[in-house]
Amino acid sequence: MSTAVITGASSGIGAATAKLLATNGYKVIAAARRKGRLEELKKFSSNIEIIELEVTDQISVDNLAAKLKEVKVSLLVNNAGGAFDSASIEKTDPAIWQKTYEVNVIGALRVTKALLPNMRANGESHIVVVTSTAGHAVYENGGSYTSAKHAERAFVQTLRLELNGEPIRITEIAPGMVKTEEFSAVRLG
Known about the structure:
Largest sheet: 6 strands, parallel
Strand order of the largest sheet: 3-2-1-4-5-6
Structural class: alpha/beta
Number of helices: 6
Helix content: 40-55%
Radius of gyration: 16 Å
């Protein structure tokens, strides 16, 4: 049975991906901050195992990698992310930009870097990064998010070049607007 690790698995695209992969025979490691939501997700399938993870905390990411040391990870879905404001550049708070980069870009970097040795040793593996159409175009009052998603897209393209010739595929999935229970609530307060 192939093992997939999904970050940001407690809701939205991450939870849906965990359910889909579990239904299709993957052993799913669903990782996210909110353990209560992960517990609910775990009830969906015996193929889902949960691990509490904060992608902005290197110790948390290192703990994830340590827990998976004996597991052959064949699929990593870097899905953790979010938007935290809808302010114009003139009125935005730089701390929001920092948080947005930390969660979206640096989080994907931390998890990929931590699991890459495992995936390399496994042979054929696949790294998926869920970005956004906001990484392909910009819009007013979305500077922090569109900038982070553009950076995440550059991360994917760079990683693809750096791993060229190795048996690790790199895929960017850039969804457009997705109806979830939280995205707008968090972004718009």
